[in-house]
Amino acid sequence: MKEVFSMWKNTRMIILVALSAAIYAAFLIVFKGGIPIVPGITEVRPANVFPPIFGLLFGPAGAWGAAIGNTIGDLFGGTLGAGSIFGFFGNFFLGFVPYKMWGALFNLVTKDDMAPTTNSVKKVIAFEIVALTASAACAVIIAWYLDLTGIVPYAFLAITITVNNFAAAFLLGPILLTLLYPRIKRWGLLWTDIMDKEDVARGFSPNIGSILMIVGSLGGLIVGIMLAAGVAGQEIYGFAGVSGSVAVWAGVLPFLILIIIAGFMLSGQEQFIEDED
Amino acid sequence: MDAELYLDLNTVIHRLDARTKITLFIYTFIGLILFENPLWLLPLCSLILLHGIVSRSLKNLRRIRYILIVLTISSLIMWNIFASGDTPLFWFLDAESAIFSVGRTMLMLFMITGGMILISTTRNEELVLGMIKMGLPYRVGFAISTSLRLVPTIASSLITVTQAQRSRGLDLESGNILARIKKFIPLLIPVFISTIRSTNIFGMALESKGFGARDDRTFYLQMKMGALDYVLLIFGLIFTLTMIFLNLQGYGDIPGLIRF
User: Fold this and answer.
1) pTM of the predicted model, to two decimals?
2) Tally of domains within chain A
3) Chain B partners of A82 at a C-beta cutoff of 8 Å?
4) Enclosing domain of residue A202
């Protein structure tokens, strides 16, 4: 995760944080209040396509932009509340996971073409995998916290956030990435063109880290829902049973830890090969 | 759309140090999530209202009235579905769940009001400088303040692009959710491109002015805590600690309420 902090010494990366946050917040605000899912917590959000795109194009700047943009969206949109705290971390991971996993996807993205675009079927599949993993990671983080505090049940919110995030990324992501990548590359604004390779975490086992990230995110989602439905008596995608159950809290916690450990294992340095060529 | 929410007034609240206003907002945030029963929320809500009246910032709530109405109606209905109780009223409504839904709606509305008072009485640069003085690195503060400044501009251009695309036949209201999401592409691309293309010029402008040259920096804007700042901070702290104590003693619950 070294680059998450080292990027702050680079002026262009700081500007990309600000611009990403402003774009994300503006879309969230303008389309807020349309179709609320849980009042004050979440609504239908087509803007959720942005964090994975920001992450792939702008790296850690995109992740910070997603986190700050979501909080500004809550502030200006009038939904700043208990969910905003972990909304910050959840949205950070929504932008963080895609760029960390992109180069460690079991040869779906090969060393001779690491460009974050969807110019082949393999890369479209790679994009959908990272988008789904990031969506689930974001959902697990936010739903775990809101269930723990007894605000919204895990079995409802985890599914809602995952579907909400992934629907936008699944439908719009590949098209947006194909259209945006050439321009961003031409302007020299790809994170791998701005940052030095030495400022990016080496990661101690990217491929295993990638597997652990998928296990942590999707495993946390599935196991959490099963525990919520089985032990806490919650209804899957419904409102019944007990929230704040110790079983859900303790059962999902190892997966959250796994997500963080995987974040340290993944690198991002492998994407700098394109520049060396 | 003019999303600049700061009101250029000279009230006693406007003159408070940004650090005081941020801390009072945090106290508000903590206080509101402590109690389920709306009666126990009333003292804090009264203080928030008083805060809003003295700062003459409640008029800004009119600007988000549509969002507030939607959130209030959906909150009053949905929190009744999320909870039940022992005392039936009619249909799916129980007395306990009705009280609970009022409490949750108050929490949401007064959290919004607290946030609105903060940004209506504090300039962006004061808000960010306040956070920097409270320990936030200034580069992070710069990114936040730039985003806050740009949101109104981008929101305006998004609305302009939306209207332009609608005039060309884009219908965002028809179709199922998936079809609607797909229709956002003609809106996403122009706004994204027009915003991001300024990055390099922006960067050069900043670096030519020495941005990032030194780890420490001075600020043109100076902040100073006054006597009233300390009085309000101490009062806020005592009030919040009292509420936490009462919450720990078991006050503020709704007897018979079954959540979820």
Assistant:
1) 0.80
2) 1
3) 33
4) 2-276
